């Protein structure tokens, strides 16, 4: 029987088979929060959407109906899938204009992604995955497109537009001349999430959090009683907003419908926000012993606040090794990270002491969700506590993007994106030669990694990567303008300029140098350091600093996310935070 963690790693490292190749923007944070807890992993999600459709039933009926009627006839067709909201009357008239369905298939809704290099990608079909996890699991994160068997089953059960059985004696058929299957309908569906929990008590804890957030349709879909996998309880959380109506060309009707979907979408997103807060505050922890807390990077356990001499270090080291057979070395970190390049000062207290090289290097291979990287724990910056943040970043990336990973260190976030997302390019920038060397070796590992899920495997992913060694400011000045769809910038600390007592905008120089490299409507993940009260207040100081710089350049900031980056603090009541924003250069 596979362990829960093994299955979680396997499921979360699978290729996302949704058409956009990513989790919906408004579901990224809640999925990351859930996945950062050892007791859960998400198996599919949709943040809430509306679309137009023609036909009877739902998407899963399509193949069968078309088969029985012949190619091109009948079936169920969906148009203009939209995960956002409609801004104004002009957008409403465009979206609900039924005359232009053919020539304007997006209608202002989600971009229909067409990336040349992936034009033959068989999105939505099996790709040899799913080693016995079964029951709709591992279908990719977003169940918005092509996947999510569970949701399709749900649609069949609940779908209110299913025609009553014609033969039922008590329901007379009303003779009408129009053909229902030729009507175009609007359907709004709210948030849906499927989560696998390690146990029934863990499932209960999550369902209680969802109910406190206001979700009423919450339940266990499968108890795991017959599962081949250790602890497989599937929880479904379903938003309550819904709307379904046939469309007619009546003047003013578009604006009314737009208001209706917008109101539902806003209530739906508010509820997701409440759910995020509830999950953050969840106290449930599956049976943890009273052992000293330690971080695991590869086969090394790193423990803090332990005396190296006097036998304490050795005692703690042996206890950790006995409790976890995968750990080969235990090292104590008592100093804080030093220098711009954030080197540690580790002392091995248990395990193979010769692992510390003469050059002071302590090297290990670390793996997260199937993607590996090489880390020199003593001479580069790396923390396993950023694991949930790396997954969150990866989930923000859409198919076809060109990504810039600044201050990349050993590069796990970028390697994960290159190995799990169908991007067009990834450029790493890092100043520390030891980190760059680790990154080059990590890239070799990516090239050989059978777990890489993008088309063409590890070799194709590797070929899309470029590594630039040196100072970010100097390198940025050589890169072309408007080259990147997304920039990831976990900037280094800047002493007095950082934190709530700062006397300036830390990292402003980097921000000014990187923003011109972003495409119109490109997105940035900008990291800062903030006190606990600032995090609770929504990182306003960090946001203001960013808005000032973006404004100076004559552009507009659209906020997408603000919150703690990863788990744990960097010092007492001090946190690394990340704000995500989109830059509008033209409006
Ligand atoms: C906070 S670490 C982030 C590392 C990695 N992205 C992570 O999150 O694990 C910052 C990294 O920026 C690098 N760095 C510092 N100053 C830099 C500069 N001027 N140009 C490029 N890289 C720099 C450091 O060597 C370090 O690896």
UniProtKB/TrEMBL annotation:
<feature type="region of interest" description="Disordered">
    <location>
        <begin position="120"/>
        <end position="174"/>
    </location>
</feature>
<dbReference type="InterPro" id="IPR003827">
    <property type="entry name" value="tRNA_yW-synthesising"/>
</dbReference>
<dbReference type="InterPro" id="IPR029063">
    <property type="entry name" value="SAM-dependent_MTases_sf"/>
</dbReference>
<dbReference type="Pfam" id="PF02475">
    <property type="entry name" value="TRM5-TYW2_MTfase"/>
</dbReference>
<feature type="compositionally biased region" description="Acidic residues">
    <location>
        <begin position="120"/>
        <end position="159"/>
    </location>
</feature>
<feature type="domain" description="tRNA wybutosine-synthesizing protein">
    <location>
        <begin position="12"/>
        <end position="280"/>
    </location>
</feature>
<dbReference type="Pfam" id="PF02676">
    <property type="entry name" value="TYW3"/>
</dbReference>
<keyword id="KW-0819">tRNA processing</keyword>
<dbReference type="InterPro" id="IPR036602">
    <property type="entry name" value="tRNA_yW-synthesising-like_sf"/>
</dbReference>
<protein>
    <recommendedName>
        <fullName>tRNA(Phe) 7-[(3-amino-3-carboxypropyl)-4-demethylwyosine(37)-N(4)]-methyltransferase</fullName>
        <ecNumber>2.1.1.282</ecNumber>
    </recommendedName>
</protein>
<keyword id="KW-0808">Transferase</keyword>
<feature type="domain" description="TRM5/TYW2-like methyltransferase">
    <location>
        <begin position="364"/>
        <end position="533"/>
    </location>
</feature>
<keyword id="KW-0489">Methyltransferase</keyword>
<dbReference type="GO" id="GO:0032259">
    <property type="term" value="P:methylation"/>
</dbReference>
<keyword id="KW-0949">S-adenosyl-L-methionine</keyword>
<dbReference type="InterPro" id="IPR056743">
    <property type="entry name" value="TRM5-TYW2-like_MTfase"/>
</dbReference>
<dbReference type="GO" id="GO:0008033">
    <property type="term" value="P:tRNA processing"/>
</dbReference>
<comment type="similarity">
    <text>Belongs to the TYW3 family.</text>
</comment>
<dbReference type="GO" id="GO:0008168">
    <property type="term" value="F:methyltransferase activity"/>
</dbReference>
């Amino acid at each position: 029987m596979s362990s829960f963690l093994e299955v979680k790693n396997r499921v979360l490292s699978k290729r996302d088979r949704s058409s956009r190749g990513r989790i919906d923007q408004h579901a990224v944070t809640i999925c990351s929060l859930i996945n950062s807890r050892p007791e859960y992993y998400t198996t599919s999600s949709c943040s809430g959407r509306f679309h137009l459709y023609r036909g009877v039933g739902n998407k899963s009926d399509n193949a069968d109906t078309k088969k029985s009627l012949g190619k091109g006839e009948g079936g169920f067709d969906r148009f203009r899938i939209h995960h956002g909201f409609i801004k104004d009357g002009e957008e409403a008239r465009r979206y609900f204009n039924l005359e232009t369905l053919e020539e304007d298939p997006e209608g202002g809704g989600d971009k229909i992604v067409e990336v040349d290099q992936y034009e033959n990608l068989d999105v939505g079909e099996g790709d040899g995955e799913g080693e016995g996890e079964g029951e709709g699991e591992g279908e990719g994160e977003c169940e918005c497109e092509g996947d999510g068997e569970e949701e399709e089953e749900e649609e069949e059960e609940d779908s209110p537009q299913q025609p009553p059985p014609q033969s039922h004696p008590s329901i007379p058929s009303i003779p009408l001349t129009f053909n229902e299957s030729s009507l175009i309908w609007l359907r709004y569906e709210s948030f849906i999430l499927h989560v696998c929990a390690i146990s029934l008590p863990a499932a209960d804890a999550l369902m209680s959090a969802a109910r406190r957030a206001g979700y009423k349709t919450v339940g266990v879909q499968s108890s795991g009683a017959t599962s081949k996998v250790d602890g497989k309880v599937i929880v479904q959380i379903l938003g309550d907003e819904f709307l379904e109506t046939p469309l007619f060309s009546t003047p003013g009707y578009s604006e009314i419908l737009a208001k209706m979907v917008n109101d539902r979408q806003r209530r739906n997103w508010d509820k997701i926000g409440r759910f995020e807060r509830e999950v953050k505050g969840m106290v449930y922890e599956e049976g943890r012993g009273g052992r000293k807390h330690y971080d695991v990077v590869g086969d090394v356990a790193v423990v803090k606040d332990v005396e190296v001499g006097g036998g304490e270090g050795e005692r703690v080291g042996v206890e950790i090794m006995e409790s976890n057979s995968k750990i080969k070395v235990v090292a104590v970190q008592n100093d804080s990270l030093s220098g711009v390049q954030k080197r540690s000062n580790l002392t091995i207290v248990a395990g193979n002491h010769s692992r510390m090289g003469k050059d002071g290097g302590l090297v290990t291979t670390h793996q997260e969700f199937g993607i590996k990287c090489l880390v020199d724990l003593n001479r580069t910056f790396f923390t396993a506590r950023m694991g949930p943040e790396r997954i969150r970043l990866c989930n923000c990336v859409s198919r076809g993007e060109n990504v810039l990973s600044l201050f990349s260190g050993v590069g796990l976030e970028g390697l994960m994106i290159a190995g799990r997302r169908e991007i067009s390019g990834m450029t790493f920038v890092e100043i520390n030669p030891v980190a760059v060397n680790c990154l080059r070796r990590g890239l070799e590992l990516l090239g050989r990694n059978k777990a890489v899920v993008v088309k063409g495997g590890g070799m194709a992913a590797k070929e899309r990567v470029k590594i630039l060694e040196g100072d970010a400011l100097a390198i940025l000045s050589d890169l072309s303008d408007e080259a990147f769809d997304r920039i990831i910038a976990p900037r280094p600390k800047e002493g007095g300029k950082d934190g709530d007592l700062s006397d300036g905008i830390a990292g402003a120089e980097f921000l000014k140098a990187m923003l011109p490299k972003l495409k119109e409507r490109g997105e940035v993940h900008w990291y800062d350091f903030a006190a606990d009260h600032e995090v609770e207040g929504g990182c306003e100081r960090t946001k203001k600093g960013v808005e000032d710089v973006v404004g100076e350049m004559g552009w507009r900031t659209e906020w997408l996310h603000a919150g703690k980056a990863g788990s744990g603090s960097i010092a007492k009541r001090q946190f690394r935070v990340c704000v995500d924003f989109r830059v509008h250069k033209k409006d």
